[in-house]
Amino acid sequence: MGYKSISELRPFRLDTVAAIVGLLIALALLPLRLFASQIYLNTVPIVLGIACVLYLIGLYQGENSTTIPALPSTVSMTLPTVVLGGLSTMVVLPALQGARTPVFFGLASLVGTLVIGQIVFANDRDFKPGLLLLQIVLFAFVFRFTALYATAGYIGIDVWTHAELTHAILEEGSVGGISDDKHYASPFYHLLVAASSLLYDVPFRLALFLSVGIVMPVSVLLIYATTNLLVSQRWATLATALFAFASHVSMWGIHLIPTSLGLVFFLGMVYALIRVMRIEYTMRDFSLLLLMSVAVILTHQVSTFIMLVLLLAAFIAQLVFEVGPLGLTRLDTSVFRTKKPVNLIGLVVFNLGLTIFVWSLTPYRQQSFLATVLSFFSQTLEESAGFLNIASDTSSETAEAGAEATPTLLEQVVPYVDALGFLFLLGATFVGCLYVVHRRRAEQSVFTLLLAAAFMLVFVLGLPMFGIRNFIPTRWFAFLFAPMAILGAIGLRTLSQGLNPKIVVSVLLMVVLIYPGAMIFAVESNVDNPVFDEQHERLAYDESELAAVESIGRLTGSPSGQEIRPDQQLHTDHPYQTLFSRTGAYPSTTTATVPDNGVADHDYVVYRSTQSTSATYFNDADGNGRIEQLTQSRLCSPAQATVYTNGDVTMCTASPASS
């Protein structure tokens, strides 16, 4: 192995220039942490800098001629059995413990490590992609369905609304049952679950699990099919594992809403799009692409916008290769086969036109969905947009509060635990992007993935820095993980071929040992029972909490919102208050206001024991939400009358004597 001199590489290649520019950008972004406290401002520049340095080191070291250490054949043959045993234990634990506990997540992390370890360290003779894909899909099934099995009701907030909408369709016998809702023009999710309920003759909850719930784990195979169009089976399998273990992907596998189904169709569209760019496609291939895009539009609005961003990236990639700046039309056929760019202008125009048409017909807040969204966006630009106007702990009020109560070490560490898996994948993605911008390797398909990831990162990380969160950036991560997983696998493949074997093994070991656990312990993967339950709220409920909502609804007669006076509004913690309003048990319900070291002053309140033991949200005197653990007396005072209690949940109202 010999190091190349700079003179040997002159003139600089495009990937070399990009790596140097990326390193300079990383250095320029470092001072931003002095002006705002935000986890991605603190970490992304470091990740970008490390990725660029590793790529440059690999570039100047040349091709790696030394074989990377591989697992012995006996170990490679034994590990699938060990993984199967671990998955079996993962099934048993929630059944015995009643929930997915930290022990479960620790075991899941170990199983994930064993799976990725097989992928990257098995020798070519022992590498079995079919067996590894089976392990990945089984892991996805077990990890998601144990959460669904161990949880009463549903996991998440929005799913309760969609359950009510689906019930309305079943009662009405047509989509007219939700004619006043924004999902009226995008009803595919609700129609699918309603049809499953009728077909299987099962309740809505089971129908949801048997339809969308089953599709989610299987859909990760679309990542394999897409990546295998670009690289070999080993790295396509790695991309599949990176995506399947990702935190936000797991979340939409247990919080089953239209976003979940939209993600499935989005993955199908990514596959169809890359396929038509990589092969001599037929009308059947292009029809699949068109079908997937229409399915996204008829399923979910946010997913539709993300799909349009992907199509925009593909169209720009087409223009780049048709115009041919920087010599990008000179392809290296040993890396990617030379193929004329696919003309996508018709597909882009069709989908944009159909989206505008559908959104114009979609009712939303007394207007069309399109008009309302544009109104919200213009209002944000006028009132709250500004550089580093981040919704985080940067306000003066928070700073003053922080001076009084210094956060504990755990409170400081938890945000980094939540983001660690994403940062690992982001670093690999940066390396993959540098690899594909080389003019000998560049082609429309990989440039589409690069541009799509870049545009989506702007919506996820860039716009929130300016106070623009109208695009609901938290919904984008799972979609972003698709191009990131593909490019990340390409990036790790690049490092394995260019770096010193010792460095390669160190990098791959970090991915194997840290990535699965980081993604699994991130809050999005365990919203049903958070590992750090004093920092993150639980988005699932016990039987007693669900029974209390139903009983309180019967007790009060489930009055409509118009029948409830402002002083009769029900107050409790967030997210429990959403359960009352979204199920219709008590439509006028909101988050209780509890002053610091004080008591709530509401006539109608609901206390649950979880408020005293785990993270729940309340408003302070200034109306700002905060996590706090309360005693019952601070919310449901002794002066109030108890009108309902089941031991875990208590409803209090103003006492007639006190009034």
Give a written overview of the molecule.
One of its GO terms (biological process) is lipid biosynthetic process. One of its GO terms (cellular component) is plasma membrane. The chain crosses the membrane at residues 12-32, 39-57, 77-96, 103-121, 133-157, 206-231, 251-274, 286-302, 308-329, 341-361, 419-437, 449-468, 474-492, 504-523. Its main location: membrane. The protein is mainly α and 659 residues long. The chain folds into 2 domains: 63-331 and 340-381 and 410-525, no CATH class; 543-653, no CATH class. The chain is built from 25 helices and 9 strands. It has helices at 14-29, 39-61, 73-97, 102-121, 129-150, 158-172, 188-200, 204-218, 221-227, 233-244, 247-254, 258-278, 283-297, 301-323, 345-361, 369-383, 396-404, 409-436, 444-462, 477-498, 501-521, 543-556, 576-583, 610-613, 632-635; strands at 363-364, 367-368, 570-572, 589-591, 604-608, 617-619, 625-627, 641-645, 649-653. A 5-stranded mixed β-sheet has the order 4-3-5-9-8. Strands 1-2 form a two-stranded antiparallel ribbon. It has a two-stranded antiparallel sheet with strand order 6-7. The longest helix has 28 residues, at 409-436.
Q: Any descriptors?
A:
membrane, 25 helices, five-stranded mixed β-sheet, two-stranded antiparallel ribbon, globular, transmembrane helix, mainly alpha, 659 residues, 2 domains
